[in-house]
Amino acid sequence: MHSSHNFDKQKLNFFNVRKLMFICLFIPILANATIADPDFSQCKINLVERAKTAGFSSYITQKVIGDISPIERVIALDKKQPEFTQTFEQYIKARVTDYHVRMGKEKLKHNQELFDSLEKKYGVPRQYLVSFWGLETVFGKHKGKMSVLNSLATLACDERRSEFFTLELLNLFTLIETEQVAVEQLQGSWAGAMGHMQFMPTAFLKYAVDGDNDGKVDVWKSEADALTTAANYLNKIDWQSKERWGREVKLPENFAFDKVAFDQYYPLDYFQQLGVKKTNNQALPTYDIQAELYLPSGYQGPAFLLYPNFNVIMTWNLSKSYALSVGILANKLVGAKEMSFLQKAQTDVKPYSTADMKNLQSQLNALGFETGEPDGIWGPKSRDAIRSFQLQHQLIADGYPNKEVFSTITFVQSKTKTITPSINQEG
Asked: Rounded distance, CA 309 to CA 289, Å?
């Protein structure tokens, strides 16, 4: 058993800050010193060396690391590229359910006093905290049962994202060494996220707050600690308290897609000039704010204008669909009307698979539309490349991999292949 250091709170904070600074100072020096190794026992030896260099005690380097073992299923989950068998509408409906709304409203009522104080102190509206809570763990029902230490070590020993997970592991060692967490508590998701709100160790170390004032932070058992930490985190990463996340909008019939690049911000009045309206056909507000246009299913699906707070949500989770789920659920928790796209029949948008997307990315690269390394993910580079391809071939330039894009690129490539032999190589 780990012998108690009996820190008083001041010393504990000092040690915590010193250790965090110590590890941060080491990051540049050790950036290439990955611990990854296919042989797990060798990887553990590498981890011990790294932990010693970062100044950890023998309790960490011998006992904690000594007890770590790999979880094969974690690697399978990390490498599994999901097939995109859902449309955006299906994705939202599967996550923003009537149950989430009903339970979320109960949580708002039950914790009213806590949310009053959090809003006052951190400026984050309560519906967002409850929305994250519902989407992360269904309000604490599914916090994860895997060993966080074993999950993080398994991922740190794998080449794919070794450095990221090694640093998470080192920060978890700091939490153990400074007695902010006990090894027995450390259960969570396969990727090492913990508690009601699924914090990674680094986020816990930087933002944890004792919300129920009992002298410790327990993000597993204390709803107050987990929610207060989440409010502190969102506040520190720049949540704008007087602004919303964005809104669903309506594009005019012949919207000038060539005038708007995706993943770029423009003043809200620029979208007014292009004829964009609220879904009820009223004019957009005359508010001085930057917005980006997002079409999760292309021009045939819903359209959204996203404001700076949306980027804050994206810091929590990099998926735009996830971030939209947070915003949509938050709206519903405070009685907003159903999004217009959820009231309509399903749009005629067929989901594409990861393999389809990878193939499209390779084809775009071959034609000079740069998507980066094909990964099957419809990210900013792919949106930009598809939009450029669409503009060149007089297609609706919505940046979405729809069937017109797939058929046109197949046609263009077959033509290119046919005429290639007769082309002068200098061309």
From this structure: 11
Q: Are residues 386 and 250 in the same domain?
A: no
- The reply to whether 107 falls in a domain is no
Question: Six-digit token pair at 410?
Answer: 């197949």
Domain count, the chain: 3
**Residues 162, 19 within the same domain:** yes
Determine, yes or no, domain membership for 221: no
Q: Is residue 360 part of a domain?
A: yes
Q: Could you tell me if 151 and 106 are in contact, meaning their C-beta atoms sit under 8 angstroms apart? A: no
59 and 156 belong to one structural domain: yes
Same domain, 289 and 363: no
Judge if 326 and 254 occupy the same domain.
yes
Q: Among 343, 367, 386, which residue terminates a domain?
A: 343
E strands present in 295-389: 303-306
Non-local CB neighbours of 364 within 8 Å, separated by 6+ positions: 370, 371, 382, 385, 386, 389, 409
CA distances from 106 to 99, 109, 134, 327, 345 (A): 11, 5, 12, 18, 30
- 163 and 50 share one domain: yes
Q: What is the Cα 78 distance to its own chain's centre?
A: 15
Nearest to 53 by CA among 18, 29, 17: 29
Question: What is the distance in angstroms between the CA of the first residue and the CA of the last residue of the chain?
Answer: 72
DSSP β-ladder status, 303-306 and 246-250:
antiparallel
Is 23 among the domain residues? Answer: yes
User: What percent of the chain has pLDDT above 90?
Assistant: 78
d(CA 34, CA 159): 8
E strands, 272-413, are: 277-278, 290-294, 303-306
Each residue's pLDDT tens digit, 221-276: 999 999 999 999 999 999 999 999 999 999 999 999 999 999 999 999 999 999 99
pLDDT band with cut points at 50, 70 and 90 for residue 343: confident
378 touches 349 (CB < 8 A): no
Lowest-confidence region among 24-28, 77-81, 223-227, 343-347: 24-28
Same domain, 36 and 175: yes
Radius of gyration, CA atoms only, the chain: 24
Boundary-marking domain end, from 311, 343, 375: 343
The whole domain housing 362 covers 354-422
Q: pTM of the entire structure? A: 0.88
Say yes or no: 165 and 33 in one domain: yes
- The full DSSP string for 244-296 is -SEEEEE--TT--GGG--TT--EEHHHHHHTT-EETTSPBPP----EEEEE-T
Per the structure block, which two tokens stand in for 75? Answer: 């690697």
